[in-house]
Design a protein that fits this description.
With 251 residues, the protein is mostly helical. The chain is built from 14 helices and no strands. Helix content is 67%, strand content 0%.
């Protein structure tokens, strides 16, 4: 009798990636499991008001983002859930190259606290090719968090945009001076953040930022004085001056 042939194994079909909606539900379930009482209390402690929030640390959100990987479609679906932590997650999941100006405007209008505003600007929007245009577009908007978004984005560019020369930052000092009298808490803090980070970029920008800081410190407007005095103290400090001098010598 002929030898019985061993059955051949069927080639396994590659598993298809789960649909976006399945990924969204899995991400929300993961966020809910990561929720802690301490992180929920921290939202109140740091003045973050969000209608839908689990209470998850940014470190755990970043861990989840690494598991999910980059996906523009997933980021859009996560944003649409309205959950605070899901929206934070989009900062690390979306592909900056695929972010559109219309998307930036739409998401910016949804900003309802400083946490989501700063995280999205610092980890996503400043890496898009539209960042500088949005600073110019949003800096005089009426909405508190839209306007903060302009200066949070400018601060993020000052820290992260290694290719930009001094000129756009010098020009942006005019926007800072124009916004400095705005007494709303989250606007003036965003303006201060941008001024201080521009002044810490290099010695030339430090000198320009100090000139503006002195002018603001002498302003009749309380918010402008607060911004100017705080920036002047930091930017003229021996620590900052040593750091910038050392950086120039190294380059």
């Amino acid at each position: 009798m002929p030898a019985r042939q061993k059955p051949t194994k069927r080639a396994q079909r590659p598993r298809e990636a789960p649909g976006v909606e399945v990924q969204v539900q899995a991400a929300l379930a993961s966020l809910e499991k990561m929720s802690t009482r301490r992180d929920r209390e921290n939202l109140k402690r740091f003045g973050i008001t969000a209608g839908k929030a689990f209470g998850v640390s940014i470190a755990n959100i970043q861990l989840l983002a690494k598991r999910l990987g980059r996906s523009h479609e997933l980021a859009a679906a996560l944003w649409d859930t309205g959950w605070y932590e899901a929206r934070l997650l989009t900062s690390f999941v979306d592909d900056p190259a695929r972010v559109t100006p219309a998307q930036m405007d739409r998401w910016c209008r949804d900003f309802d606290n400083w946490g989501i505003c700063d995280t999205v600007c610092f980890h996503l929007f400043d890496r898009t090719p539209h960042a500088w245009a949005k600073v110019a577009q949003w800096h005089d908007k009426r909405g508190e968090f839209v306007k903060r978004g302009a200066f949070a984005l400018l601060a993020s560019l000052a820290l992260h945009d290694k290719q930009a020369g001094d000129r756009p930052f010098i020009e942006s000092l005019t926007l800072i001076e124009r916004a400095a009298p705005d007494e709303r808490n989250f606007v003036k803090k965003g303006v201060s953040w941008a001024l201080r980070l521009i002044g810490r970029r290099n010695l030339a920008l430090n000198a320009e930022a100090i000139v503006l800081s002195r002018r603001l410190a002498a302003s009749p407007d309380a918010a402008a004085r607060w911004i100017g005095r705080g920036a002047l103290k930091e930017l003229t400090s021996p620590m900052v001056q040593r750091h910038l001098t050392t950086r120039r010598r190294a380059s």
